[in-house]
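Pair request: fold both.
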Amino acid sequence: MAFYDSLKLEKGMYNLDFTKALEELDPSENYEGTDLASLDAYERQLKRFNIKVNGKNSDIIEKFFQATDSAVLFPEYVKRAVEQGLETASILPSIVSTITKIDGNDYRTITLTTDETSGNAVTEGVAIPETVIKNSSSLVTMKKRGRVISSSYESLRLKRLDLFSVALKQIGADIARAQLGDAVTVLAGGTNNTVSPVSETGFAYADLIAMWAGLAPYELNTILANTAMMQTILSLTEMKDAEAGLTFQGTGKMITPLGSTLVRAASVANYTIVGFDKNCALEMVQAGDVSVDFDRLIDKQLERTIISSTVGFARVFEDSIKKLTYTPAST
């Protein structure tokens, strides 16, 4: 049995999953009841080489490259920092129904159809209504989103890891915003999910009611809009009641009078809102985790190093999504 302070670290451990490879060699369960119980296998390796990646006393980037084994840890540090920024900035957990992880790039979601008589009582001799679940006829479109680091190792080697983490987290945040745009495109797509505005010009509370009614029997529990549209919604008289005001001022969470969560997304078109049932509208498909050029990073070739994430989205229940676009009132 190998222990954390005697493991031989190699590039090949990145061919699958670096942390998983470490955990197989040095299981965390072996450290229960010890001072290392709170650390995973990767964090134990940071401790082994006395590398501090956080806080005002964090080490410089060069600390990773003082030994051949410790240099192997650098790509995982980069990956984790980017993932932290992605997770912090992403609002996708607020709008997706389920997350599916796949190994390749080809994936088909499912489609579901139910007999129109499904709500009727079944009498003797009458067939039970059928729900058909099958693979979609088309593949989910997967998109790679990422950034290229344009900086040399020499220019960064003496920088503190805590500072470098800020830059890496920002890369993750940029990827998250791009993925949100992809999700909005899928949610707002389709030709049979539009709701006609009630008023001829401008936006009114009645338009929200029309969207709520159009989604039945699904719930209107989430609404996507850009900043200008959210200002319009929040300016409605019905949004100025005491309860909504207290919720917004106390938590920053915006709730419509219909009980829906307002989510801001810059990629939603002007004068448009997308309303849906978060429980069954959107599937997020991930092709692996955040990807980094581990070979280049280990060899100190930061310049032109690519960091990327491949994700796709698919509508699950078409009728659980509605889009409304209105004509603004003339000024």
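--- second member of the pair ---
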Amino acid sequence: MRLIVTNDDGIHSVFLHALVRALLRAQHTVYVVAPKSEKSWIGCAKSRHHAVSSEVIDVKLGCPTWTVDGTPSDCVNIGLDHLLPKGHDVQAVVSGINIGRNASLGFILASGTIGGAWEGAIHGLPGIAFSQDMNSEVFARLKAAGDQPDEDLRRSLDCSAQRAAELVPTLVAQGPQGGFVVHNVNFPLPSLSSCEVVRTVPAHVIIPGLFSPAADDGTHRFVFHLGDDRSPPHPLSDRAALDQGKISHTVLDYRALGHPYLPEKP
């Protein structure tokens, strides 16, 4: 398949590189357009109030690669319209692999990874977002090592990248064609070749208190936490699937937004 690949962790992310190399091994044609620096938690934002620049970059991926000093959505928009060769006929936008899970209603809309895939969806293309779950201890070790995964995490990442490359054609074929749908796929930790792919819905998570009280200088600091999961036991949520060691596949069909609310019958 012919794919444009982006992420929100930046062009130098090992997780992006693992995905691209797996896609290339699977004989997909890949164009990479990724942010110059990390743009996590930015959703589908676009750089409206300042100009952004793009440039060719060589990060040894073995495919045409550009970086944009903007958001994931900027990258996909500029890539599709201005960077890729004329007549490229891209078939899907793939975003990731994200460092950490992108699961639950409380986090999905904030995700830059999903925002990049959504930009494909509003171009009329299938959008696919891949994320690698990890706990706080694994995340802390990764950051302490300069975003270089240790041996155990590398095994999971390589397995997730391979599974992602295998899943792309199936997800694209599932449709529907014409846009407004994003496939959100989260890989568990550890990620194994035996992990089952299950269909899920976004968990119902409430996440207040993501910023600290004001410090002496009046500033508030971001404080991450997983929030309060209020999901019913059925249907299976993305978080529950990850906790069971399964690969969560949630279809985000934005065409369903705005449907009238139907109260439960008394």
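Observation on the second member. The longest helix spans residues 151-174.
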